[in-house]
Predict the structure.
Amino acid sequence: MKTIAAQPFDYAFDPAHTALIVIDMQRDFIEPGGFGAALGNDVSLLKKIVPTVGRLIDAFRAAKLPIIHTRECHKPDLSDCPPAKLLRGKPSLRIGDPGPMGRILVSGEPGADIVPELAAKPGEIVLDKPGKGAFYATPLGDMLKARGITHLVFAGVTTEVCVQTTMREANDRGYDCLLAEDATESYFPEFKKAAIDMIRAQGAIVGWTATVDQIAKALV
C-alpha cells in the first residue's frame, strides 16, 4: 500500500488496484463554439487546467496504471437524450444542433472528442456516456471489476456536475475515490470550491482530494 498526503487525511491505495478516470475533457466543453460556450460560459476557465490534467495522465502512464477517458455525448438520433436534458436551460445551441465543431454533444462529431492535448493513447479506455455520471448506461462498472480496481483517482470537468456525480456513483459502489483538485474545474469557481468541500466533508464522506504533484509523487 502507498499513501498520498490528501485531505481530510491520508489516502491509502494499492497501485495495482487503482485507475484514473478523466471526465469529459472534450472540445464541446473546453473550446470556443461548443456547448459550454453556448450556455454562456467562459470556457477559458476550463481550458487552463489542460496542462495539469496532462501531467496527471503522464504520471499514470509512467506508472503503467489504467486510464479511462469519458465523453458525454449522445447517439445521432438523440434516442438516449431525455427531453428534460435536451430542453434544459436556454442555450444558443442545444444538444444535437449544428455547431462550429459539428453537432453539439453527438457521438462521432469533432466537438464531442477529447481535446487533442489529452487524447487517449492505445490501450486506454474511451467511454461514451449519455448522462452526467459515468456509471449510468455504460459498462464502466464491469470494466473496473474485470481489472480488479478498488481505488479511483478523478480529474476533469465540471467539478460539481459530471465529476462529482461520478464520484458519488463510485462511492455508493464501494470505491475509494480521490479527486485531483487542481486537475478539475468549473465554469463557476465558487461551485468548484463547494463541491470539493462537500466531497471531503465528514471524514471523506464522498472521497479525498489532493494535488497532482502529491498524487504523482506517490506513484513513483
Remarks:
- The first strand starts at residue 2 and ends at 4.
- The mean pLDDT is 97.
- The beta strands are 2-4, 11-13, 18-23, 67-72, 98-99, 102-103, 125-129, 151-157, 176-185, 208-210.
